[in-house]
Amino acid sequence: LVWLGTACALGTILEYRSHVDVFGDLAKLIPGAHVHVPRLRAHVAASARISFGGPAKHGLADATMLDAAVPIAAVFLLRAREVWHRIGWGAALIVLIAGCVATQEKTALILLFVSLAAIVAYNPRRYKRWWPLLIVAVLLIRIASPHSISELIYQFKDIGGSNSTSGRTTDYPAVAPFLNTHLLFGRGFGSYEPHKYRILDDQMLGFLIEIGAVGLIAYTALILTPAAMCVRRGLRGLSLEDDLLAALSTGFLAFFVSNFLYDSFSFRQGPYTFFFLAALVAAAVGRQTGHTPVQRGDIGIRGAEAPPA
């Protein structure tokens, strides 16, 4: 997952620099595949905001996938013993962060902060010695994708005058009539037609209209239940698997937050990533282990040593 995410991030950075969708060009080499790839964006106005999506064709979906891999790379970096392993996992983490920034989406930066803050919160003392890596990340991002950080800072400074922000704030009064009449159970799943009324940049708001407050609670439980299954072992942190479960829980949290920031079901990559991570959690937590937990000092980058017979 980390290395595929790294490849995704490198392609996003390349797209940011060259305005060429390398993934789309590679997909054309697949026999029988019909892929439409936007060509060079050389004629786009300098003031226009461009979203770089890598293989997802949109930066929001791209960022959701990359942010799911960031805490996992952080765990492998934390567990690495040898210098070259630390360099490799540290480089992967920096590339993933750079890919998130290269999407040029405010949501990408918010989800990145949520993922990193959540994984560090499990054990701040173990992660605090790696904070200088963020300085290295900033320097390398400025080299790999120039002006990307400045552009995001400008977007946050101008957040009040942004069309995307104003569009989100006007969604609430516009859909108030739907909520006043069907608040508890909604109008029915799929009943809201965005192209007939208005496109909602808030998946939770859309679900509140369609499945009501009861359905929204059930959907929230669907996302947070696998995260809750990871918390106890994540806080224990005795083995590599414990730390990886903690990392997976931060991916669920980031996906949950993304539902408030954009219409996540309009981009299939986000839900696909969620269910993939949930499957990993179900496989890890649901199986019966036949040996005692491994202590922190007995585990490295390749996992635990075999228990004694």
Structure at a glance:
The chain is mainly alpha-helical. Helices cover 64% and strands 1% of the residues.
Description:
The chain is mainly α. It contains 14 helices and two strands. The chain has a two-stranded antiparallel ribbon. It starts with a helix and ends in a 5-residue tail after the last strand. The model is unreliable at 296-300 and 302-309 (pLDDT under 50).
Structural class: mainly alpha
Biggest beta sheet summary: 2 strands, antiparallel
Q: What is the residue-mean pLDDT, rounded to a whole number?
A: 84
Order of strands, widest sheet: 1-2
Count of strand segments: 2
Shape: globular
**Number of separate helices:** 14
Provide the gyration radius in Å.
21 Å
Uncertain runs are 296-300, 302-309
End-to-end distance = 32 Å
Q: How much of the residues is beta strand, in percent?
A: under 5%
